[in-house]
């Protein structure tokens, strides 16, 4: 009997500490799970009922993440482990700010997200909680069901206008007898206060003596305006796809038996890339219609076998946005 009593006492001596330790750990676990508190922080500019409802959504999301919290409250013990949800308005936006504090006032981790209305807290709450609990960035928590307005901002652009252009110009070709040959242009442009991008289709040609030529280009380029006023000088340039044809007629005599003469034509042409530079003055910039005087030099990156064609043009052009703007094409 005495032997059994000794064995029992020894067993209790060694086992009791483990049992007490397990009970203490269990108690600590339970206490930890129930100690988390969700505080409602500042909500200036937000209706109190909306702030309470939004805080409740945050509490529900914390529970989904395995954190045991009660319903949101306004006060808590200073030693408690606290999550605090705050709302601050800036103009038409609301900053949702979630923090974890231990003790109160000492922020361990925080996350924030901008929303455009308090109703967006429905999409924002899961993201803010997930980002805070798992230490993720807010951007990494977005999916197709939780996009808020701040994730898809409207891109702001410098305003401009689209214009169509028609014009007439005279063409001179250095090294030939071509001067003042008639040409036509039709084009589109998009203009901002200081810059413009443009595309044109141009055609010119003519005859002088026994020579004739045709020069057709489709070009894309830009302009820089030196002023934002009603009348402004500008410079510009760009690239062009050019087609050139040059024909020379040579008068030849028949043999003595037949007498008289005839013309033998020699034609050469090519198509390729080129460039151009422009300079001019645009008027009536403050209205929907424009008038432009422009000097332009075209230069191809290729040469014809016997004749180099580099047109220099001086023209007048009319531009407007009435038709394109009225029909909403641009």
Characteristic terms for this protein:
eight-stranded antiparallel beta barrel, 2 domains, alpha+beta, about 325 residues, about 45% strand, four-stranded mixed β-sheet, Porin, Double Stranded RNA Binding Domain
Beta-strand percentage range: over 45%
Secondary-structure content class: alpha+beta
Q: Would you count the extended β strands for me? A: 12
- Alpha carbon gyration radius: 41 Å
- Biggest sheet descriptor: 8 strands, antiparallel, barrel
Description:
By secondary structure, the protein is of the alpha+beta class. The protein has 2 domains: 36-151, Double Stranded RNA Binding Domain (2-Layer Sandwich), CATH 3.30.160; 161-326, Porin (Beta Barrel). The protein has helices at residues 2-35, 48-64, 121-133, 322-326; strands at 37-40, 82-90, 93-101, 107-115, 161-172, 181-191, 195-208, 211-225, 232-253, 261-283, 289-300, 312-320. The strands form 2 sheets. An 8-stranded antiparallel beta barrel has the order 5-6-7-8-9-10-11-12. Strands 1-2-3-4 form a 4-stranded mixed β-sheet, with helices on one face. Strand 5 (161-172) and strand 6 (181-191) form a beta hairpin. The radius of gyration is 41 Å and the shape is rod-shaped. It starts with a helix and ends with a helix. 25% of the residues are buried. The model is unreliable at 15-34 (pLDDT under 50).
Quick structural gist:
With 330 residues, this protein is of the alpha+beta class. Helices cover 21% and strands 45% of the residues. The chain contains 4 helices and 12 strands, in the order αβαβββαββββββββα.
Topology of this protein?
Elements: H1 2-35, E1 37-40, H2 48-64, E2 82-90, E3 93-101, E4 107-115, H3 121-133, E5 161-172, E6 181-191, E7 195-208, E8 211-225, E9 232-253, E10 261-283, E11 289-300, E12 312-320, H4 322-326
């Amino acid at each position: 009997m005495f032997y059994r009593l000794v064995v029992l006492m020894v067993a209790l001596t060694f086992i009791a500490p483990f049992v007490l330790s397990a009970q203490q750990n269990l108690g600590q676990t339970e206490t930890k799970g129930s100690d988390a508190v969700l505080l409602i922080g500042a909500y200036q500019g937000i209706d109190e009922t909306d702030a309470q409802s939004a805080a409740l959504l945050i509490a529900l999301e914390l529970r989904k993440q395995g954190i045991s919290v009660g319903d949101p409250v306004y006060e808590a013990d200073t030693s408690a482990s606290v999550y605090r949800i705050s709302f601050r308005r800036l103009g038409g936006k609301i900053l949702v700010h979630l923090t974890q504090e231990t003790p109160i006032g000492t922020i361990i981790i925080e996350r924030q997200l901008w929303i455009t209305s308090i109703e967006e807290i429905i999409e924002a709450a899961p993201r803010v909680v997930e980002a805070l609990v798992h230490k993720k960035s807010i951007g990494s928590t977005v999916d197709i069901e939780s996009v808020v307005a701040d994730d898809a901002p409207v891109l702001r652009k410098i305003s401009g206008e689209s214009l169509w252009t028609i014009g007439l110009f005279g063409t001179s070709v250095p090294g030939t007898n071509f001067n003042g040959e008639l040409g036509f242009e039709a084009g589109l442009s998009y203009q901002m206060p200081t810059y413009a991008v443009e595309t044109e289709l141009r055609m010119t040609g003519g005859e002088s003596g026994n020579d004739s030529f045709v020069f057709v280009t489709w070009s894309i380029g830009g302009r820089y305006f030196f002023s934002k006023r009603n009348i402004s000088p500008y410079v510009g340039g760009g690239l062009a796809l050019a087609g050139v044809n040059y024909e020379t007629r040579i008068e030849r005599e028949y043999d003595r038996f037949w007498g008289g003469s005839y013309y033998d034509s020699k034609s050469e042409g090519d198509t390729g890339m080129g460039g151009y530079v422009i300079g001019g003055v645009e008027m009536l910039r403050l209205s929907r219609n424009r008038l432009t005087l422009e000097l332009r030099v075209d230069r191809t990156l290729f040469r014809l076998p016997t004749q180099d064609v580099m047109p220099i043009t001086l023209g007048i052009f009319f531009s407007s946005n009435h038709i394109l703007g009225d029909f909403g094409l641009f």
